[in-house]
Amino acid sequence: MSGRITRLCVKEGEQVKTGQVLAVIDQVPYQAALRTAQANVSAAQAKVETARIELQGKQALFDEKVISDYELSLARNGLAVALAELEQAKAQETDARNNLSYTEIKSPSNGVVGTLPFRIGALVSPGMTQPFTVVSDNAEMYAYFSVSENKLRQFRTQYGSIDKMISQMPEVGLQLNDGTFYGRKGRIETVSGVVNATTGAVQIKARFPNPDRELLSGTIGNIVLQGVDADAILLPKTATVELQDKIIAYRLRNGKAEAAYLTVDRLNDGNHFVVKQGVSVGDTIITEGVGLVKEGMIVTPKNVTP
């Protein structure tokens, strides 16, 4: 509806419920329009009663052969017109009542009120492109992420189908932008049927419970997926160093440190790398003080119990 805001009922960041009034637009003209519509309904009802009485009188005269069938038909038509005008007046009353109700801007869902760019006295109208506000229903949050087409194919092979993957895949974790892990697990809900032609990746949506409103809309993080790869080697990240875009581990060869350039799976738990290439089962890996190790350095191994 068009009009000036006369009352703001909430503040930015406030928790609201479905149907709660957020603001009120000037109601005076819409209240007047409703009263006019109600008066028109009353007038139309009076016309119907008058037309009905007139028809009854005409019917009696017609039965006594005082008037013609033509005059009786006119009376019947007069009642029909009055009834139609009554229905029209009732429709206009309903429209006016709805317009008045629309002057109360209500929350469409439970959630948190976003920015309120409009203040009391601001003029609003249906043609405005800027929303009054955004209510974020963040009791549950959806995380969108992508996996490679090859990785999705591996999951499909492992579970038998995409539907079984969605229903049977273990819960997923969420690593936040600061490196910490969100305390609740999520579940995969949908897998896109389209491969991005540019990236070769497929989008997946996971749902996370968010009862404490810890997650905010637009939060950035990493999704942690659980999978089974019997041929993979798991290395703690502390046993590696990153040099530009390369990940390096050091293994022992003839008592000396030898650099191994790793190919890793970026789907990890935040603390380990899943190594696809670079080291082999049986290699002795240096796990402590890796940042001080140099190629060819003599190293005395000390077995560490996992």
Spatial ordering of strands, largest sheet: 13-17-16-15-14
SSE order? EEEHHEEEEEHHEEEEEEEEE
What structural class do the secondary elements suggest? alpha+beta
Could you report the average pLDDT, rounded to the nearest whole number?
91
Spans of at least 5 consecutive residues with low confidence: none
Outline type = elongated
The total tally of domains equals 4
Which bin fits the share of residues in helices?
A: 25-40%
Strand share of the residues?
25-35%
Per DSSP E runs of 2 or more residues, the count of β-strands stands at 17
* CATH architecture call of the largest domain: Beta Barrel
- CATH topology of the largest domain: the name is Elongation Factor Tu (Ef-tu), domain 3
What is the CATH superfamily label of the largest domain?
A: Efflux pump adaptor protein, beta barrel domain
The CATH class of the largest domain is Mainly Beta
Distance between the termini: 67 Å
The number of helical elements comes to 4
For the largest beta-sheet, the strand count, sense and barrel status come to: 5 strands, antiparallel
Q: Taking Cα atoms only, what radius of gyration do you get, to the nearest Å?
A: 37 Å
Pfam family, one: BSH_RND
InterPro entries: MdtA-like_b-barrel, MdtA-like_BSH, RND_pump_MFP
Protein name: Hemolysin D
GO biological process, one term: response to antibiotic
Summary?
The protein is of the alpha+beta class. It has helices spanning 28-63, 69-101, 149-159, 162-168, and strands spanning 3-8, 15-16, 21-25, 104-106, 111-113, 123-124, 135-136, 140-148, 173-176, 187-195, 201-209, 221-224, 233-236, 240-243, 246-253, 256-265, 272-277. This is Hemolysin D.
